[in-house]
């Protein structure tokens, strides 16, 4: 035998101290994760991470308008900045890491092609007020997106500019209000009917537009109580706001009856389109009698959620509401595209303008890139796979957990209540936090409000069967542990996350919303 | 389809596990008349290459700011964004995460929001700032509504120096709430007219500085007048970089700052997504719209951050919420925060001075042209000029020569009768050569 | 001390009624983080929303158990909302109201009746 290098590292872990040894690290480090100070707590006062030429003016022509006092903005060199933000990033869960089953939020894969397209200089480096002759391609993109959205929804018109779902709701209700005003009925129609299961934005928006909100009851099978709705509809009702598929993850079976009754009463049907992902390509809201519906481009059409935004919430409109759409909009003249920026110019009935400029162009590009990639056949498959995945989860968990509405299929999300946790002393919150220790982001909890201890699981179509099986396996083990009374595992969870449970009471009682220089510190600001 | 992981075999196995015969069984609740039997009439699945070609063809039809002499502003500004910014915001953990509702696994987002809030508060000179709204214009609308809640009054006095799109967006929303607006006539020094209009029924006064004509104003006197009448002063800032050179709104007595943060970290993007800055006084906190991130500790006593004060928000307050806003501008905040951290105070002040320098140089070059009158006396990086011709025509003619000369005021407000006014902006990206090209071409167009 | 079915309490001293929320309500809310007390001088009709109490995850309107004018609000709650949890039926009072109609108290429950009412919930 020839000589071998026998000097090497140990290859079995049993020479390490046992697992109970929990010496606190000096850096707060847990594996690769370190505590990261705020930028304000470093030594960056006076430092900068950009190299700029020396200005030839000192601003003295501005006299006493010039800011003299310290502003309070630390600077970081480029490597410091990179490290700071990358370290922070590692404390986040993300759809790129694992399933992110937040019901109602549609956390699906975000294709990077969309990011690449949105960054083309021809879209990202153009000014909203350039002459229209110099942005014909941008207007073409908006027109093409409009065509896709109206075709997929079976609606004749779309207002692109709303900047998020709630902004879209505002747009839809303002159009409804304008339509009633045009008919001279606004003064009498001051109520908006909203089911108890609705997203909070629905009643908030209705109130924002000056309507009083009347709640509509829900049936035992998780749908709008049509009899209750009928009894509340009347000449004083401006609109109903119904989410379909609804927030319980169910399709409103009586949707035709709901829209018929609504229209008979002279009211309009606003549909919250947050859950459009479940039906895209298979059902057109226009065929259901919808008058206005926002589409969260950051949900169904996969523009990234980005930690809470930006989103986009274009609103499709029926024939009856189309004339009231806000400025701006694009017209294909046959000889090029024209952006109508002033509602007075073309349509006297338009209700105004919702924001400066043209809305979320960057999101339009991403959404169109996503739609074109799928095509009409792919989008239909999106809805089918999203619904299939949710039903698969429901089927595989329903023996251990309690589905809120066990009868019949769900749509794109599976809703459980906390009935199955009864007697365990473990709450929905505890269960959710224990999921974190298994490497999963919890589902939506305690929403919709109509279901006790709600757990709303939306897998989306971009989870593979293998990932779903892994998730289901973990959920089953956890559920069994809960039933077996392993309370500690839940009450203390999460144990392995970057942070343990945070004290929200403390944060709310005496809010600290910014860094403030500690007393006696030498910081510049 | 490349984004859909399920195979035909998977689907079959899963349907079997569910106990369904076909996918149609899962759509039984859809009324038959509404079931589409085939894909709608749109193009079918397309590969990455095809999509890239189609979209690149559209992009290629647009004249980009970076490829031509470029002087457009009026609420959107071309600045250089360091490469680090765009790299970091595309990290999976930032790009593909949701609103940080599970703080244990969202400290990255929460901490940068806390840093963002601190930066915005310090930049605006205000005690507190929220975690952003959609953009500057919607921030202004929210500010006016908040002022009516705080003062229990119903009228907003809006200076003629405020960006007409901001005014229109605000009016559209607040009129629906029954709030009255009094919009004063546009003028380069419109702020001078404001004080006389403040009365006992005024909920708030809205002024913009630098205003839409570029004029930088000390609004201290307006703040005093408003507050003497029990009204709030809302200061609108559409060019965030200006606060690196000019007195902050807080220093001048603002009660609310509604700003556009696009200039820091964010591209022009043809108007969006942008980032609404919203800052105010501590005592008004409970009446503010939007999200806040606050400091707290975890159960081990380690510092951490959570979303807080959420009882003001729609998901809890529903029809009694201070606003219906839910989604904010998260990723744009991150871009803002990273860019601002790279700049630091030193870099920001330098950047602001460079902007001012380029604007002064542009003004000097244009002022020398026969027939051009510079209207704005004191400005940051944008000023208004009066032309002897219709400004829209002039801009179109220059655009045909590959020069984006600025924004005709009449594009924003045609009814104002200011058809000869052109708004010209310069930033650190403006080259001396571009200024020469603009001046030369403008002189020719005016002489023709 | 008398109670309403909405879990407010009222205690009368002359024509001044001190009002707050019951121990049961305070416990159900969880950690109180903010109380919006009414402005002194404002008048409320019985049943009007006159204050708001917030926990981290909930905001509840508090209804005036009697009609009258607010003569004092418990300013201490601004800095110490936790008092509502610590002493809901004592130091955690919300406001003192000069009542306009003492007979309105007649319809309210005494402690025993309120406890019996809670038992039915």
The general outline of chain C is globular
The residue-averaged pLDDT of chain C reads 90
CATH homolog superfamily of the largest domain in chain B: Type I PLP-dependent aspartate aminotransferase-like (Major domain)
CATH top level of chain C is: Mainly Beta
Separation, N- and C-terminal Cα atoms of chain C: 21 Å
**Which architecture of the largest domain in chain B does the CATH hierarchy give at level 2?**
3-Layer(aba) Sandwich
Helical residues, percent of chain C: 10-25%
Query: Do you know the CATH topology of chain C?
Result: OB fold (Dihydrolipoamide Acetyltransferase, E2P)
Largest sheet of chain C: 6 strands, antiparallel
Classify the secondary structure makeup of chain B into a structural class: alpha/beta
How much is the radius of gyration of chain C in Å? Answer: 13 Å
Order of helices and strands of chain B: HHHHHEHEHEEHEEEEEHHEEHEHEH
CATH second-level architecture of chain C: Beta Barrel
Query: How big a fraction of the residues of chain C is strand?
Result: 35-45%
Main sheet record of chain B: 7 strands, mixed
Protein name (chain B): Probable glycine dehydrogenase (decarboxylating) subunit 1
Pfam families (chain B): GDC-P
Subunit structure (chain B): The glycine cleavage system is composed of four proteins: P, T, L and H. In this organism, the P 'protein' is a heterodimer of two subunits.
EC number (chain B): 1.4.4.2
Task: Write structural notes for this entry.
Chain B: It is an enzyme of class 1 (oxidoreductase). By secondary structure, chain A is an alpha/beta fold. Chain A contains 14 helices and 13 strands. Chain A has a domain at 114-370: Type I PLP-dependent aspartate aminotransferase-like (Major domain) (Aspartate Aminotransferase, domain 2). Chain A is globular and about 80 Å long. In chain B, 36% of the residues lie in helices and 13% in strands. In chain B, strand 4, helix 8 (220-228) and strand 5 form a beta-alpha-beta unit. In chain B, helix 6 packs across helix 7 (164-176). Chain C has 121 residues and is α+β, with helices and mostly antiparallel strands. Chain C has helices at 23-29, 76-79, 83-86, 111-119, and strands at 2-3, 8-13, 16-21, 32-36, 43-44, 49-55, 59-63, 68-73, 95-99. Chain C is built from 4 helices and 9 strands; from the N terminus they run βββαβββββααβα. Chain C has one domain (2-101): RNA polymerase II/Efflux pump adaptor protein, barrel-sandwich hybrid domain (OB fold (Dihydrolipoamide Acetyltransferase, E2P), Beta Barrel), CATH 2.40.50.100. The relative contact order of chain C is 0.26. Classes of the chains: A alpha/beta (525), B alpha/beta (448), C alpha+beta (121). Chains in contact: A-B, A-C, B-C. At the A-B interface, helix 1, helix 2, helix 3, helix 4 and helix 5 of A face helix 1, helix 2, helix 3, helix 4 and helix 5 of B.
